[in-house]
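Following up on my earlier thread - several people asked me to post the actual chain instead of describing it. Fair enough. Here it is, all 297 residues.
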Amino acid sequence: MRSVVIELQQDAMDKSVRTSDLLRKAYVVARKLKLSEFLEWIENELNGYKGEVPEYRMAKGQIRGWNPYNGWIPLMFEDPAEGEALSERACGQSIAELEHLIENGSSKSTLHMPYPQKIQRQLSQGFGFETEVSLFVGQSALIRVIDSVRNVVLNWALKLEEDGILGEGLSFSEKEKSSATSIPQSINNFYGSVHAPQIQQGNQTAIQVSSTINADSQAITEFINELKNNIEQLGLPLDSKAELSSEIATVEAQLQSPKPKTVIVKESLKTIRTVLESASGSAAGQMLIELGKMVMG
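Reply from S.P.:
Thanks for posting it. Predicted structure:
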């Protein structure tokens, strides 16, 4: 009968085996051997972290704020130390969630981790107006987390073999169980120190910008409804009016979609702005002012 520890080593080296599945097998081994530290680590990886995280889960990136006219722009700090401290955050999501983000994004996908509202208000002062502020990180940050977890499991399984703990199938002898509990198996020896998040909060979520609308959809809906109610007062030529109506329909369709496309909405709003700029009268001016308040430019 094959050794589950050897299987664990093989699975850790096999990229076709999902890391979340690898962790479940490791959980079985740790529980049968009564290794409480490893059980806690595996449970955190499977369910997500609530507090301190391992060093490999600290993600560095660029702090950016949303500008209604220029999109996401970087925030510059007078004190470099402050910027450095805020540009590193804990990624506490479960391994399965991180795998989902990677599998459903492209290699060029950008991820962002929104700051808590209190921190966002403080950072917004650097832009001169209140806006959404997030830490932008590359997809490689999530890949690094997943690879680090695989390496921890691999090194742990190799150490078990070195200590003569192999198991038969999913079973371990009493001698192996006794050896496992008597031989130091400190999890820190496998992944290093832990870190308390620089920013204490519950939200450590990474969100794919490419698949979400970074705007208040309710505000956009209200603007579109107001625009439709005033379209006759804009004094537009027939072709411009038809173009405006088409873009309005496009935005409405995206807002009703379960997965609205950011790029499509942004481009439609840009076209609406261009049409409004070509119009005359107070109605067009008021619509431009309202559009300027949108979080998409």
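The longest strand covers residues 62-67. That should answer part of your original question.
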